[in-house]
UniProtKB/TrEMBL annotation, chain A:
This is Uncharacterized protein DUF3311. InterPro entries: DUF3311. Pfam families: DUF3311. The chain crosses the membrane at residues 7-24, 30-56. The keyword Membrane applies. It comes from Scopulibacillus darangshiensis.
UniProtKB/TrEMBL annotation, chain B:
GO terms for molecular function: transmembrane transporter activity. Keywords: Membrane, Transmembrane, Transmembrane helix, Transport. This is SSS family solute:Na+ symporter. CDD domains: SLC5sbd (cd10322). Belongs to the sodium:solute symporter (SSF) (TC 2.A.21) family. It is found in: Membrane. Pfam families: SSF. The chain crosses the membrane at residues 6-24, 45-65, 71-96, 123-140, 160-181, 193-212, 239-257, 278-301, 326-350, 370-391, 397-417, 424-445, 451-469. InterPro entries: Na/Glc_symporter_sf, Na/solute_symporter, Sodium:Solute_Symporter. PANTHER family: MONOCARBOXYLIC ACID PERMEASE, SODIUM/PROLINE SYMPORTER-RELATED.
Amino acid sequence: MNRIFEVILFLIPFIAQLLLLPWVNKADPFVIGLPFFFFWWLLWLLATPFFTLAIYKLRKNRSTRKEQR
Amino acid sequence: MSTSNLALLITAIIVFIVIIIGFISGSDKSSRESIEQWSIGGRNFGGLLIWFLIGADIYTAYTFLGLTGYAYTLGAPAFFACAYAALAFPIIFYYIPKIWSVAAEFKMTTLADYVRERFDSKFLSGLVALVGILFLIPYIDLQLAGIQNVVKVAGHGTISPTVILIISFLLVGTYTFFSGLRAPAWTALVKDILVWVVMLFLVIYLPIKWFGGWGDFLHVAAEKYPEYMTLPGHGGGHGSFWFSTAAFISAVALFMWPHSSTGALAAKSGESLRKNAIALPFYNILLFFITALGILALLVVPGLKDSNSALLILIQKSLGGVGQGFSFATIMLASLVPASIMVIAASNLLATNIIQDLFAKSMQQKKVTLMARLFVFLIVLLALMFGILFPSSIINLQLQGTSGIVQIFPAVAVSLYWKKMNKVPVTVGLIGGLVMIFLAAPLHLPGYSGFWGILVNIALILILTPFFAGKTASSDNKVVRFLFEN
């Protein structure tokens, strides 16, 4: 369960930034003053590290649980 | 004093101060004695210093001049750099701490060292080193071009091109020769503080000065240049497929570069690398705004022939002498510091993994270190010659290099996880991948050439590996034992 969750966390930024392009490739609507395509890149620059952080926490929990056993 | 003289003077003073800091931090003789000391700082860098060191080779002349230049000519496709800079880190989070632990255990200083021991093949490691050096040369040239562009623009065309070439050569060569990795690590600190201050200032001030704010600036841009707002950009050559393949391959390639891995191997622990994989990307936020400044330059100073100078000319048109001086110095240091890290990595590869491993096995360690330090001048000279022979836009140099360097990924990273890998299929795959990147253009394949290269590379490895499985299973190898028997 834990591992599947990890794989999903890993894949989401890749799907958002590599596979969804045809759907986000537009100038309108402007979000926070940015054309939509521009906004998309700012969003994922900020969001991607949090996915890595979540993976880090997940793995850390797993290894401490292993040690306790 | 005129504005331009003041700018030139301030630039020179700041660059000079930083170089002195570099000389002082590298003046300890012990920092030059062994390859491990000179090239990876004795594997002794804590989390924060690593942050600056790795940050130093991501934020280079390529970022400031290349990306703004790319946005200036093409528009939206330049954002592929944001995608790759973000995606590189979840990938390295997994394999960089792992390769660090192998390198620390067996005292390795380069990725080629790892390949040599992992596959018991000096030919394969020599090949990996050669690929590293060959594709680093255009990247180093790109940093030299950054220095040259600054001097050219700051000097208002009054400084002769030959003098500019000599300045860039001496600056990078002597700085690197005397100080090794310790100097760029400490000067990277100063450079990074300057980068943040100057870039935040430019990013906030320039749109306000010319258009009243970011929202207004981009509305004007969207009206005047609608084709710059989305893919495939101006000229129409860079669609979604190109964007995805270029971003993905560049992300995978980021830590295959000898200079990035130099930074990573200098870390004190694998844990500090994992934390950096989370913290470093916050550095990337600037990347977005810098790219957008290319669009601002398009509106303010349209019609430039040399797009690589777009940001510099925008700065010259927008700021007074002091502002120009600080900005130019920052961009110059953003070329000098990474150039130095790259040159160290390339000369180390040449001395250890090619000359010592393949031709002079019994050479004393002290001599190898001295040789590596002397190669600094050779590498800088080669990069200069490359630039004179093949002038090209900054971003194209970087993209070509990336296609090539990513081909070592199976040998370096996949081999950490896949026990059955054998040197023969990996060598064939690497060569096949390299050939493929040069065939992609004549075959009219869409997208990014490195992508087709890595497909061929991996396909060859998958097809050939079963034939060598027996051989791999029967051989005894300390690195394989270390990786798979814990």
